Automatic annotation (TrEMBL):
Assigned protein family: Belongs to the class II aldolase/RraA-like family.
Organism of derivation: Sinomonas humi
Cited Gene3D superfamilies: Ribonuclease E inhibitor RraA/RraA-like (3.50.30.40)
Subunit structure: Homotrimer.
Coiled coil: none
Entry cofactors: a divalent metal cation; Mg(2+)
Residues where Mg(2+) binds: 122
Reaction(s) catalysed by this chain's protein: 4-hydroxy-4-methyl-2-oxoglutarate = 2 pyruvate; oxaloacetate + H(+) = pyruvate + CO2
InterPro entries hit by this protein: RraA/RraA-like, RraA/RraA-like_sf
Name of protein: Putative 4-hydroxy-4-methyl-2-oxoglutarate aldolase
Sites where the protein binds substrate: 99-102, 121
Entry keyword annotation includes Metal-binding: yes
Length: 230
């Protein structure tokens, strides 16, 4: 009986991730706005042409090296397949915390992607590996002897947004957003409603109708309005 329960939970989680991955960040962002949830990561941009990544967050926090030294960290062995690595390096742009070796190994292990609040490097190697990568900067200088891994799987701050381990991450060509784990189902439901409505508006206008009339008919201007939590 325990086995069946765990299997159903895993299947449900897989289905939830697939629903999330099927949505654009724009629709999810509108849902976050309507529900009053801060989740958009300002200034974090795609660095490889790999489409969309969705999964639970695996968080890592870096800090500057002091007189006690420290290392850049070998946390990758701990990252489960399907998770998205979210690294906080205080938006530091003068050294990297993610490079080609990490991308190649992560791709081979089925990690969904990496988001860096700071700099990454070796974009060609990441592209060749087909690995999904987003960051707030690109710079080739190593982080060795400049930063150290301070914490793994703790709460991090990315562009003013708090990210906890196992929150949900969605990233695409428009950027990256994070959904608190305890709000994901209501955010998904609203984002799917928004996406269906916007598709219907576009189709109505393309088929010869007035865009103004289509927006009015489908309630476009109320889509992103604040609403009660569902």
């Amino acid at each position: 009986m325990t086995y069946i329960t765990e299997e159903r939970t895993a299947l449900s989680e897989d289905a939830l991730i697939e629903r999330l991955k099927a949505l654009p960040t724009a629709a999810v962002s509108d849902a976050l706005d309507a529900l009053g949830i801060a989740g958009q990561l300002l200034g974090v941009a795609p660095r490889t042409a790999t489409g969309t990544a969705a999964g639970r967050a695996f968080t890592v926090r870096y800090e500057p090296v002091d007189e006690h030294g420290g290392t850049v960290g070998d946390f990758l062995d701990e990252v489960p397949a399907g998770h998205v690595v979210v690294i906080e390096n205080a938006a530091r742009t003068d050294c990297t915390v993610w490079g080609g070796i990490m991308s190649r190994v992560a791709a081979a292990r089925g990690v969904a992607g990496t988001v860096v609040y700071g700099a990454c490097r070796d974009l060609a190697a990441s592209e060749q590996a087909g690995y999904a990568l987003w960051s707030s900067a690109v710079f080739m200088r190593t982080g060795k002897d400049r930063v150290r891994c301070a914490e793994v799987q703790g709460r991090v701050q990315i562009a003013g947004v708090a990210v906890a381990p196992s929150d949900y991450v969605l990233a695409d060509a428009d950027g990256v957003l994070v959904i608190p784990a305890n709000r994901v189902e209501e955010v998904l439901a609203l984002a799917e409603e928004i996406e269906r409505t916007e598709t219907a508006i576009a189709e109505a206008a393309i088929e010869g109708g007035s865009l103004v009339a289509a927006r009015t008919s489908f309630g476009y201007h109320a889509l992103q309005s604040a609403r009660d939590s569902r």
